[in-house]
Each structure stands twice: as C-alpha cells, then as structure tokens.
C-alpha cells in the first residue's frame, strides 16, 4: 500500500511550491530532497527547502508594467507558498521584491514540514519513478545519477548553460565615508541600495583588472557551453567593451554622490541580503574569477577597501531538458505519462519562474488525481505565456532558458502608444486570469 498519492523529487523552489499546491488540494505528497541526507549540490549551502542559491531578489514587484511583477500577482492569486513567504520575509529593495534568504527558506521549510499531507524524506533519488504519479523538480543542478536516468529516458543529452553567483559583503566592513545609501531615482524608500562611486580613472583601472584577473579554468566538456544572458559573469561582460559595465550593472544614472552632488562616472551597487541588514550582495557581480583574485580586486572598489566577504562568487553548469519536444501542454513527459517536470529543469529561468512552473505542475497533477482535466492558463496571462514558451512555442532545437517577459505574450493588437503597451498587457492578463480562475 502506498502512503502517498504523488512523489515529488526535489525540494527547491518548484518542488516546494508543487508540494504545497497538491497538499492544499488534499493529496498526500512524498517530497524527496537529497540535501539533509549527506548530499549537497555545488551551489546550495544548507538543508533548507527552497534555498536561494545566489541573489536574494525575486525582481520587480510591479504588476502594472512588469512581466515578473505580474507573475508575482498571479501566483499570489493562486495561493503560492513561495510568494507568501517571500512577502513575509521582504527586505527593502526599491520596487523589487527581495527577501531575507534565511528567513524565507526557513519559512518555506516550516510550512512544508508542518503540513499534514506532506512527508519530507531526505534521500537522493537516482532513477525516474517507473510507476505512480511523480513530479521531477530537481533543478539546474540535478544529481548526476538522476540526470543520467533522465538522459536515457529522453533519448537526448540534457542541454546545459552556465549560471554564476555574486559575492556577499558584511555591511560593517563597508566604508560609509565613501559609500552612501540611495536607490536609483530615489525609488522605493529612496535609500535601499549601498552605492560605491568610481571616477573615470578608477573605473578604467578596475575594468582592465577584471580583464586581466585570474579566472577559473573550464574543463574540456564545458568549453562550448553558453552563458545565460541574465547571469553573465562580470568579467565576460567587461570583455564586450570598455563601457559595457557603465551601461549595465555599474550604471551611475539617478544616483547622486553626496560628496560631489553629481552622478559618479560609474557605481557599484549592493543590495540588502538579509532582514537584519548585516549582509549585502554586489548587484550583477556574478563571476568566475578565482576567490583570492575576487578579494584583491573587489577591495579596490572605493568604499570596499576593507570589505569582508560572507560568500564569494562562483560559476556552475546548469542542466535542462528539451521541453517543447518532450512535454505536453500540462508539463507531462509524453514518453512516461506518470511523470511531470517542473522548475528550472524544464528550461525556465529564475526563482519566480521556477516556482510558477512548480505551481502549475502541482495544480495539473492535483486535477488529474481528482479525475478532472485542468486546461492551461490562457497565454495572455504571465503563467500561461511562460508555460506556452516551455511546452509549445519555442523551437526544440534552439530552446534556451528564458525569464518571463512581454515578448512571450501574444502581441497587443490595434494601435497603442508604446508607453501604454505594458499596461495593456497587464490589464488583459488580469481579465484572462480571472476568467480562467472562475472555472477552477
Ligand atoms: C549557480 C546558480 C546561480 C543562480 N542564480 C540565480 C539568481 O540569482 N536569481 C534567480 O532567480 N535564479 C538563479 N539561479 C537559478 C535558480 O537555481 C533557479 O531559479 C531556482 O533555484 C530553480 O528552482 P528549482 O526548484 O527548479 O531548482 P532548485 O531550487 O535547485 O531545487 C532543486 C532541488 O532538488 C534537489 N535535488 C537535485 N537532485 C536530486 C536528486 N537526485 N534527488 C533528490 N533531490 C535532488 C536539490 O538539492 C535542490 O534542493 C541560479 C542557479 C544557479 C545554479
């Protein structure tokens, strides 16, 4: 006799959200998570469920004019645990939703572990379940045994790209005679970021040092693996041109250095990383520089001369499947219909997107267990647009991980001013979601 209705493998962002949705719908879940059983991925550091491996940001929370903000709103409407705990552990970050990473993952772990319908089992799973309903949510760092089993079942090698981690600094090691608090254009509370200014000479020297710095060598099999554009190492970005960083993560616009009353030539920004405000991550500074090199180089940034690092940057290979070819419109693995895939392994990108796809996988599975068919959310919604990208719209051959964005939505027809277009997308999405939810 089985003790569960469905087996979820992987207790990250997607697996935790899927488990929550199924458990709330009344189904018994076995949630297998290998961390806590003596296993670890190359990026996680704790045994908590839904651990955030790099930035602590869920990005924009603006549901009126931003696609990921809209996705937040849709997930909240559907009872997302990840958003509930994200909101509960929010830290100041302008118009973004950033969270205290420890409080957030502890909150998710506590909710999942206390749920009467969920049994969390600390174990590594090495093969795809051959029978019984299952969701695979093992993420970009799926353990090698299971990755091999997935490769064998999909008949194709899983695809890969690189993701990188940004360093985290102890606030009390920052020199506030140089650095100052301010968010760009004084958005949010107006002082949500710490800014370190660079003049032209300092910037040019820093740029050159990034190019010259000693990097982690790639192994042979990694050499042709592309980067995900949204998580490109700082030194790779620097290699694209001397001004690329000044128009990217080191952009100075809207930031007034109190010592000069002007925008600096370039800026390094740090965003709060925990609720107590003791840890701050260097925004956009994911890197594959060697650790000693990072310490040496980042301490040349004005204000960070005595920086103490709680964590240094790193680089990891990510794995995902060719979802448009392998999954049906409800995330079901066509070759083995007892299995669904969820989260970043399906080829979405980002914490929020992974949790969103976990939410949908949970809802589709719950409907099926109840003997119902749940139609996918309409493509005009953020959830539907993302799902459609994963399961249908993209070309399987050239499929690449993607954050949610308005380019995935059906275009707005008729004439409209460019400035109004985002609001037209979000207004249309709200109506479409309400229609879909009325049939749930
Ligand atoms: C280095 C790195 C940096 C990143 N930086 C960011 C960022 O800054 N912002 C952002 O939005 N996204 C970032 N990402 C992407 C991020 O990982 C995903 O957005 C998100 O964590 C994916 O959620 P998930 O649930 O699919 O996978 P995960 O959150 O990784 O969860 C998968 C879980 O499965 C477990 N697991 C793996 N294999 C097995 C097995 N065989 N048996 C049992 N359990 C298993 C793992 O331990 C893990 O807990 C980064 C990814 C990496 C690798």
Bound molecules: flavin-adenine dinucleotide
Termini gap: 31 Å
Biggest sheet: strand arrangement: 10-11-12-13-9-14
Query: Shape, please?
Result: globular
Measured as a percent range, the helix fraction is 25-40%
Report the biggest beta sheet as strand number plus sense, adding barrel if it closes: 6 strands, antiparallel
H/E element order: EHEEHHEEHEEHEEEEHHEEHEEHEHHH
The oligomeric status of these chains comes to: single chain
Class from secondary-structure proportions: alpha/beta
Radius of gyration: 22 Å
What is this entry, summarized?
By secondary structure, this protein is an alpha/beta fold.
Description:
The protein has 440 residues and is of the alpha/beta class. The chain is 31% helix and 16% strand. It has a six-stranded antiparallel sheet. A five-stranded parallel sheet has the order 6-2-1-7-16, with helices on one face. Strands 3-5-4 form a three-stranded antiparallel sheet. The longest helix has 21 residues. The two termini are 31 Å apart. Flavin-adenine dinucleotide binds next to helix 1, strand 2, strand 8, strand 15 and helix 10.
List the helices and strands and how they pair.
Blueprint: E1 6-9, H1 13-24, E2 29-33, E3 57-60, H2 67-77, H3 81-88, E4 90-91, E5 96-99, H4 101-114, E6 118-122, E7 134-136, H5 144-154, E8 159-165, E9 168-170, E10 180-181, E11 193-198, H6 200-212, H7 234-238, E12 266-272, E13 279-282, H8 291-298, E14 309-311, E15 314-320, H9 323-326, E16 339-341, H10 351-369, H11 382-393, H12 418-438
Parallel strand pairs: 1-2, 1-7, 2-6, 7-16
Antiparallel strand pairs: 3-5, 4-5, 8-15, 9-13, 9-14, 10-11, 11-12, 12-13
This protein binds flavin-adenine dinucleotide.
Flavin-adenine dinucleotide (FAD) binds next to helix 1, strand 2, strand 8, strand 15 and helix 10.
